[in-house]
Amino acid sequence: MAKSSGRMVGAAVLLLVGGCWQAVVGLQAVAEGGYFTAPEGYAFAFSIAAWGWVHLAVGALAVAVGVRLFWGGTTARVLGLGLASASLVANFLWLPIEPWWSVVLIGLDVFVIWALATAGGRLRVSVER
Fold first, then answer.
1. Can you tell me the distance from the alpha carbon of 38 to that of 30, in angstroms, rounded to the nearest whole number?
2. What does pTM read for this prediction?
3. Residues 3-39: pLDDT tens digits?
4. Which of 14, 26, 59, 121 is surrounded by the fewest CB atoms within 10 Å?
């Protein structure tokens, strides 16, 4: 890891924690959707089980990328930025259904994006020709 390994480790841990939380929410929504209810007239009115699968998939991928971030690397950083952004959007859309949980996860995602974007200097993406 580069000189900012503390930020990478912090981002990895928070991505792991956020991914686990999101996967738990997804499992709960898939298993017993009755706990979660969408408000009347909500524009993104998917079934609660569909939202559960979205959260489960994003959470599982976030956990996998969080583990990979401990070894560093540009690919892990780019995937981490993408997954934290996807998690942020998913939790923003989940906000009317579960507000407090969503706000906490949005905060974690913002911190993960900041930490990954500023850890260890510039991202080097090589394009072979």
1. 14
2. 0.78
3. 446 788 888 999 999 999 889 988 988 887 666 666 6
4. 121
Alpha carbon distance 98, 86 (integer Å): 17
What span, in angstroms and rounded, lies between the C-alpha atoms of 60 and 62? 5
- Which two three-digit tokens encode residue 73? 């690397």
Tokens of 79: 């995937």
- Nearest Cα residue to 22 out of 111, 83, 110: 83
Phi/psi of residue 95, nearest 5 degrees: -50, -45
CB 59 within 8 A of CB 22: yes
Query: What sign has the CA pseudo-torsion 83, 8, 26, 85?
Result: negative
Query: Per the structure block, which two tokens stand in for 75?
Result: 């690919």
User: In this structure, are residues 92 and 106 in contact, taking their beta carbons and an 8 Å threshold?
Assistant: yes
**94 closest CA partner among 32, 40, 57, 39:** 39
